[in-house]
Amino acid sequence: MNSRAHTLSVFEVIKETADAVTLVFDVPAELAERFGYSPGQFLTVEVPSERCGSVARCYSLSSSPHCDRRPAVTVKRTADGYASNWICDNAAVNSVLTVLEPAGAFVPGSLDRDVLLCAAGSGITPVISIAKSVLLAGTGNVALLYANRDIGSVIFAGQIDALAAKFPDRLHVLHWLEEERGLPATDAIAQLVQSYVDRDVYLCGPAGFATQTMAALIRLGVADDRIRTEAYRSLEANPFLAPSAALRASNPNSATIATVELDGQTYELDWPKGTPLLDILLTKGLDAPYVCRESACGTCVCSVRSGRTRMLLNESLLDEELEVGLTLACQTLPESDRVHIAFDQ
C-alpha cells in the first residue's frame, strides 16, 4: 500500500446538482498536517471494483484551506464513468474511502494577484477553491467565466452568488449557458474576457471548451507562462497497488550515479540513462510520490540540486519552475554522470 494512502470517513454528502455531489471528509487530528493542501489541488480516491479490485480517480478539492474546516471533493456523474457513478450512488455519511494525500500543480502563485478563472461543467471544482481563497484570504480581484448546459447544471450556484454579493467590487462572474448561447466559441470567449487578459489565467474544463478558450487567450496575446491548465484523464497506473515498474533494457555501463533525497533519507543508486527516474525509484522499492505517471498531475515534482537532466514531456511545470531546477520524476532522464535529486517540494 502506498504510504501516502489513508482511510478517511465521509463527514457529509452534499447534492450540488442532479448529477454532482460533494464529499466532505473528516480528517483525524493525526493526519491534519498530511492533508494540508493548496487551493486548486486534488485528492486521488480508491473506488472498489468487482472487476479489478479497485480503480483510482483524481477529484479536485472544491473546498478552500482558508475558509473551509474540512477538505471536500466534488464529483460529477458521467454516462460511462464507473467511479463517478459508484460515488454518486454509494458514498454516504460515515462511508470510509482510501485517499492519497493532496497533490497537483494547478495552484495560484499568489492570492494577492488578480486572476481570470475559466471553467466549464465540473471544471469549476478547483476553480471555486481558488476563487474562495483569493477573495477570502488574499487581495486579488477575480473574473470567473463559467460555462454550463443550463441553469440547473451550474455547480456551486449558491456559493458563487454569495461570493458575488459579498465581494461586488472584486468578483465579476460571466455565466455562459449553452441552452441560450450554444457551445462556447473562440470569438465570443475573446469578447467576454478581453478586459481581464492582464491577469494570471487558470483554465479547467472539457477538451472542447479548453481548446476554444486557449485559442481566445492566444488571440488576445496572453503569454503561455501566465496560463495554468488542469486536464482530467484516466490514470494508466493505480497508485494504490504495489508498483510493477520494470527497468527498461539499458547498457549498465551508461548508468548515472544518482544521489536522491526522499522522506528524510539519502540514497545512492545507478540510474540507467534511458529510464525515467520514477521507474528506478519504484523498482528499488522506494516510496516516491506519484499519481498519473504522465506528467499531468505534478505530484512527482523534485529538485535537481546538481548535474544535468532532461524531461521527455512536461504538462505541469512553468518556465520559471524549470529555471530554478524543478523537474518531474516520471519524465526525467539523466544527462550527466552524476546527478543529485531532492524530493523537497
Automatic annotation (TrEMBL):
Record keywords, A-Z: 2Fe-2S, FAD, Flavoprotein, Iron, Iron-sulfur, Metal-binding, Oxidoreductase
Organism domain of life: Bacteria
Keyword Nuclease on entry: no
InterPro entries: 2Fe-2S_ferredoxin-like_sf, 2Fe-2S_ferredoxin-type, Beta-grasp_dom_sf, Cbr1-like_FAD-bd_dom, FAD-bd_FR_type, Flavoprot_Pyr_Nucl_cyt_Rdtase, FNR_nucleotide-bd, MRET
Cofactor: FAD
Residues in FAD-binding FR-type domain copies: 3-109
Pfam families per UniProt: FAD_binding_6 (PF00970), Fer2 (PF00111), NAD_binding_1 (PF00175)
Residue ranges occupied by any 2Fe-2S ferredoxin-type domain in the UniProt entry: 256-345
Name of the protein this chain belongs to: Ferredoxin--NADP reductase
